[in-house]
Amino acid sequence: MSNLTFFKFDDLGTAREGGPLPERVLAGAAKFKNWDVDRSNDEKVRAGVWETTPGTYRSIKGGTWEFCYILSGLSEVTEDGKEPVRVRAGDSFVMRPEFTGIWHCIETTRKIWVVYNK
3-19, pLDDT tens digit by residue? Predict the structure, then answer.
């Protein structure tokens, strides 16, 4: 087994489909697709690709640390008590543990994610 993993965007396999928890939906009917690309043996670190269709919902990270790199689309992320920040292709950011806020997808958005769970 190699210690190098590539994101093969033209062959991610079958996505897990879902959406925000019903109690977190604020507007619209966002649908998620998630492709797991790699994970550590203890599953504390995972990486993959995520996509959401337009909609608005609460984002609650709990104990998860997440690095995001936006591949396409347009969304607005608003941390509770802060101003909204628009994110689009080429933007990257970290959502630290205990982040709470709103994810508002304006145009279908796809991102690479890497998470660390305590």
Answer: 889 999 999 999 999 99
Q: DSSP class of residue 95? A: E
> Cα(72)–Cα(100) distance, rounded to whole angstroms?
23
Residue 23 has phi, psi (to 5 degrees) of: -75, -10
**What's the pLDDT tens digit per position in 46-72?**
999 999 999 999 999 999 999 999 999
- Encode 6-27 in three state secondary structure: CCCCCCCCCCEEECCCHHHEEE
CATH superfamily of 16-117: Jelly Rolls (2.60.120.10)
Global pTM reads: 0.93
End-to-end CA distance of the chain: 26
